[in-house]
Design goal:
698 residues, alpha/beta, Rossmann fold, 9% strand, elongated, GTPase activation
Length: 698
């Protein structure tokens, strides 16, 4: 209870932990070795201590209070360890203070850092009356405020950590230095200390690592079904294996095993450095021993079993269709379903699958029935002799035909397709009186078409003829080179539209056959090499000319004339005329106006002059103001193919110098719309060849 202390040249200690470690802390000496005491904190432990009687402690505190009161110095009673306080002890301590005059009580907890500053602040206010009076807050209310303050500081600190720390490989030493200037870090460390700040950091690092491991695990598990599909796609190979160990041995024996898996020296994989090797996407082999991987293997095995069962169901259904007498050509699915379906079918496949199989089967039996019916018509050819040429048979005649054929099973097979059966009869009648390859029911499998294809592929052109005619050089029926001519963006716009109709590899289907289509849009001066029709790598087979105004039509005419001027005067090396098609496109405005009619008339005149085809949008049945449609594109390409075939045949025939003695060769030549062509170059060598003869009048 002394108020004057003397300890010359002694250090001031703030904590007993500093004893023996004085050099590690700031050293302060007592001023002049003397110290005056201005006030006292009278501490009372309200926790339940072992072998300690609280009443005895309170008696000791009471005696101590009497001694301190004699000093006339301010005094504050401090209840310590309130976080473990006993309610009776706290009441008794308050009762003790209440019996003293102006004795204030502060409930504290040093462990929770609750009201510690308040205890000292209250005493300072009693010493210095000029300071504002501190408000004393009960322990539990102060604890609540303290907890809220710590929670807010913790949230801010965790936000700071999550913003700065993005990798689970970060260390506390490096991150701590980065965070020290931040107020979020400083506030939390002030309230909770550095160790708790480090603990939260380590928790965040652990969470980042677990998230990283989980992402890798999900990526591996997502890749595992693909590995199973690639390495063990055969059910017979794995269906008899018992236990995952045998499956693992089978996987290791596969040649592509190391493309999918990696065998680590240390396990488990998530505790090794492989977890951070993001460039290596191969699956750790020990992952197969985990339950999720086993489930994926079982799912793979079940998938293969189900696929086999579904394939068996499809085969059984097809077999059922082929043997069922209830499935006839043209019978709808709704009528046939009840006769051919059973409950087992529905267990494994959706009805849409069966409908698809049934549709394909129907197509096969309908095509076969039509072929058989066509043979039947040929067998009864005498029925069609009495018909008038180009006349549609009367109902009476059709009745007679149907009556004669009605008893034939091949006629009855198309009972549900009467309209198509009648159409086949009319088509057969048309073929009887107009027997061409276009009207042939077997086209494109008829002999005429086959012969044309055979001639086109078997005739070869001599190299000297190729050198004279670049157009015939290395031209193949499987490729079409098309020049699109038009100014002001017309050529490029149409080229883009045609490419949109092609497949991904620039292929286009014409007459059921796939062709490689190369487009060369030209919109500038054709005398410049960049706009030339023909280049060392591009030999055009035809030109599609576009216009939508008088100016663009003039550009087309001038470009064609310039292109032809470049080939004139070279009789020994003149190419065959380039097939042209003129099309009116993209004219905005009223389709009935005089401008449209004028453009159509001008286009027709120019087409006649150039001896080429003219495409009129109105005549083609498409709306004016649009580009040419897909059907017209197909017509243009088909015309080019026909022209190419003719050129191939002409070029091949012109190279013949001698005919085999047992060959009777008949040649029919059509010289169609183009520049004047010297037919003698082709015909004379043939007529002069040994064994050749000209037909009368030929």
């Amino acid at each position: 209870a002394a108020t004057k202390l003397a300890s010359a040249e002694k250090l001031m200690y703030f904590c007993t932990d500093q004893l023996g470690l004085e050099q590690d802390f700031e050293q302060k000496q007592m001023p002049d070795g003397k110290l005056l005491v201005d006030g006292f904190l009278l501490c009372v432990d309200v926790s339940r201590g072992m072998n300690r009687n609280f009443d005895e402690q309170l008696k000791f505190v009471s005696n101590l209070y009497n001694q301190l009161a004699k000093t006339k110095k301010p005094m504050v009673v401090v209840l310590t360890k309130c976080d473990e306080g006993v309610e009776r002890y706290i009441r008794d301590a308050h009762a003790f203070a209440l019996g003293k005059k102006n004795l204030q009580v502060v409930e504290t907890s040093a462990r929770s850092n609750v009201n510690v500053d308040l205890a000292f602040g209250t005493l300072v206010q009693l010493v210095d009356r000029s300071r504002g009076k501190a408000k004393i807050i009960p322990y539990f209310e102060a604890l609540k405020q303290q907890s809220q303050q710590i929670a807010a500081a913790k949230d801010k600190y965790e936000w700071l950590v999550s913003r700065i720390v993005k990798s689970h490989n970060e260390t506390w030493a490096g991150v701590g230095r980065k965070m020290q200037p931040a107020p979020e870090y400083q506030d939390y460390v002030y309230l909770e200390g550095t160790q708790k700040a480090k603990k939260l950091f380590l928790q965040h690092i652990h969470r980042l690592k677990q998230e990283h491991i989980e992402r890798r695990r999900k990526a591996y598990l997502a890749l595992l079904p693909q590995a199973f599909d690639a390495l063990i796609p055969d059910l017979d190979e794995i269906d008899h294996l018992v236990g995952l160990g045998k499956v693992e041995k089978l996987l290791e024996s596969k040649p592509d095993f190391l493309q999918w898996f990696v065998v680590l020296e240390e396990t488990p994989w998530d505790a090794t450095s492989h977890v951070d090797n993001v460039e290596n996407e191969r699956i750790p082999f020990d992952l197969l021993e985990t339950p999720p991987a086993e489930q994926l293997y079982e799912a793979h095995l079940e998938k293969l079993r189900n696929e086999r069962k579904r394939a068996e169901m499809r085969r059984a259904f097809r077999d059922n269709l082929e043997t069922s007498p209830f499935v006839t050509p043209g019978k709808p699915w709704e009528e046939a379903r009840s006769f051919i379906m059973n409950e087992d079918f529905y267990l494994w496949l959706d009805e849409s699958v069966y409908v698809d199989i049934y549709g394909k089967h129907q197509k096969q039996i309908i095509d076969k029935a039509k072929e058989d019916f066509q043979e039947l018509l040929l067998e009864y050819s005498e029925l069609f002799y009495e018909l008038e040429l180009d006349a549609k048979p009367s109902k009476e005649k059709m009745g007679v035909i149907q009556e004669v054929l009605g008893e034939e099973q091949r006629f009855k097979a198309l009972q549900k397709l009467q309209a198509e059966r009648d159409a086949l009869i009319l088509k057969h009648i048309h073929f009887v009186y107009h027997p061409t390859k276009e009207t042939c029911p077997s086209c494109p499998g008829c002999v005429d078409s086959r012969m044309e294809q055979l001639l086109g592929t078997r005739f070869t052109r001599p190299s000297e003829r190729n050198q004279k005619n670049p157009l015939l050089d290395s031209t193949s029926v499987d490729r079409i080179n098309l020049v699109i001519l038009g100014k002001d963006g017309l050529a490029r716009e149409l080229a883009n539209e045609i490419r949109a109709l092609c497949t991904n590899d620039d292929k286009y289907v014409v007459e059921g056959k796939m062709y490689e289509l190369a487009l060369r849009p030209i919109e500038g001066n054709v005398r410049l090499p960049v706009n030339a029709f023909q280049t060392p790598t591009f030999q055009p087979h035809g030109c599609l000319c576009l216009y939508n105004s008088k100016e663009s039509l003039s550009y087309v005419v001038e470009s064609i004339e310039k292109s032809r001027e470049g080939t004139m005067g070279r009789r020994d090396n003149h190419p065959a005329p380039l097939p042209l098609t003129l099309a009116l496109v993209n004219k905005r405005g009223d389709a009935s106006g005089e401008t449209l009619q004028s453009l159509i008339q001008q286009g027709q005149q120019i087409a006649s002059k150039l001896q080429c085809v003219f495409l009129d949008p109105a005549a083609a049945g498409i709306g004016y103001g649009r580009n040419i449609n897909e059907r017209q594109v197909g017509q243009v390409l088909k015309a080019l193919l026909d022209s190419k075939r003719n050129l191939n045949l002409v070029g091949s025939a012109s190279g013949l110098k001698e005919l085999p003695p047992d060959v009777d060769l008949r040649i029919v030549m059509c010289l169609m719309c183009g520049d004047p062509f010297d037919a003698e170059d082709v015909l004379l060598p043939l007529l002069q060849a040994p064994g050749a003869r000209a037909a009368p009048g030929g």
